[in-house]
Amino acid sequence: MDSTTPLQIAVLFNSPPDNEFCHDVRQSFSDAFGIVAPGAQVDSYDPVVKGNFPEPQDYDLIVLSGGKADASSSEPWVLRELDFVRAVARDSPRTKIMGICFGHQAVARAFGGEVAAVSSGPIAAIQDVNLTEAGKKFFPFAASTGYYRAPEFHVREVVKPAPGFIHLAEHHECFLNAENTIISFQAHPEIQNDLVKKLLLEEDDVYNGNSSRQQLELEVRKLDQSTDGIDLLRRVIQWVKE
User: Fold this and answer.
1) pLDDT, tens only, 79-114
2) What domain of life does the UniProt record list for this protein's source (predicted)?
3) Catalytic residues
4) Measured on CA atoms in the order 97, 99, 104, 107, is the torsion positive or negative?
């Protein structure tokens, strides 16, 4: 693509709109893309209530956000989103896709993977995600340490990867498809420290009910060291332009 043309980005917000949680998520994407892709046109879509989806050919990148829904469910809007993802990959290969958390799980399921509840219970933490050799090549900023650090909030996970997807990180944490058009993260590269703290200490018990207050405060202290979300997203934007 022409490097001088502003990127066109569509974000599918996989949570019911008009509540504080969705507002926070929308703001986190706005802030993050403002840093890594200044000048980009970022449009929002509501697949949950309004059931609207972008025209793939109008966008360089389609983002599937996180959310509290179950990517393994048979809710009609979830099934429509899985169909949409498959259609984009099939019919608009120029358009790249990034899945995050729920979106990561939805991508895996859409192409034949499996999603299930985390066996150890809900996760609310700052994770050091170990990279594979392929991941070290894809994320050169993290090649020397061998991991990236990012927040995770989830109660389900990918337990069986989709065929043809390359592991960029261990434990099904990050995938790239063989066609180099879809990337997905279990972690949240878009969430910055203020919202991480809020989700850890103030959010309902969907995510943090498995952790004591002391454990959650220990996770907050990890934010004294930098996380890698912005670097991950910068690499994604570079990948979109490749």
Assistant:
1) 999 999 999 999 999 999 999 999 999 999 999 999
2) Eukaryota
3) 101, 188, 190
4) negative
